[in-house]
Specification:
With 188 residues, the protein is of the alpha+beta class. The protein contains three helices and nine strands.
Length: 188
C-alpha cells in the first residue's frame, strides 16, 4: 500500500482479494445447488411406477329414461270439487246434452292445439282417402274420418282435397258442452 498526497492507493494484490472471495462463495453456492437433494423423491416415484397396475372398472352404462308428456286435457280441474263436476256432467247427460267421451283413449294428435296443426295433403290408399296432418315438431300423421285431433275433443267428419272438416266439443264453463264446426285448411 502506498500513501501519496493524502490519498490511499490500493495496489493490485489487495484489489483482487474481494473478487477472489466472491468467486469462491459463488462456486460454493453453485456446487450446493447441483447436489442431489431429491434422491428420496426419485426413489418414491420409481417405486410407484414399479407397482402392479390396478384395473379400473369401466363406467356404468347410462340408462335412458322415456320422457313423459303430461296432457291435462280431459282431466278435471283440481280447484273445483269433484262432486260439482260430476253433478254437472250427469245433468248434461240426463238432459241429452252433448259431452265428450271421458272413457275414450286419447289419440296422439289431441295433444296439439288445432292452430299448431297443418294439413299437408291427401292420400288414397287401398280405397281409403287419408288426410296428411303435420304437427309443430314436423311429424306427418295420416288421419281418417272418425279420428280425433286438437285439444277440444275434435272429431274428423270429412276429408276433402283442400280441408279436413271436424266437430269440436267445447265446455261453456257451467258444466254444459257445445258443438262447434271447425276445419283444417290445406297449407300453401
Amino acid at each position: 500500500m502506498k500513501i501519496s498526497s493524502g490519498k490511499l492507493k490500493v495496489s493490485g494484490a489487495a484489489h483482487t482479494m474481494p473478487r477472489l472471495m466472491l468467486g469462491i462463495v459463488m462456486t460454493t453456492l453453485l456446487a450446493a445447488c447441483g447436489s442431489d437433494g431429491h434422491q428420496d423423491l426419485r426413489d418414491y416415484v420409481a417405486e410407484v411406477k414399479a407397482r402392479d397396475q390396478i384395473a379400473i372398472e369401466p363406467l356404468p352404462e347410462i340408462k335412458t329414461f322415456e320422457t313423459f308428456v303430461f296432457d291435462e286435457t280431459g282431466l278435471r280441474d283440481p280447484f273445483v270439487p269433484a262432486e260439482i263436476i260430476q253433478d254437472s256432467v250427469e245433468m248434461s247427460i240426463a238432459n241429452g246434452g252433448i259431452h265428450p267421451d271421458a272413457g275414450r283413449r286419447k289419440e296422439e294428435l289431441e295433444s296439439y292445439s288445432l292452430d299448431s296443426l297443418r294439413m299437408m295433403g291427401t292420400l288414397e290408399l287401398k280405397g281409403l282417402y287419408w288426410g296428411l296432418v303435420k304437427t309443430s315438431d314436423g311429424t306427418i300423421h295420416r288421419v281418417l274420418p272418425g279420428n280425433h285431433l286438437g285439444m277440444n275433443h275434435g272429431k274428423i267428419n270429412r276429408i276433402l282435397g283442400d280441408k279436413i272438416e271436424l266437430t269440436e266439443i267445447i265446455s261453456d264453463g257451467a258444466g254444459s258442452w257445445n258443438e262447434r264446426q271447425a276445419a283444417l285448411a290445406l297449407a300453401e
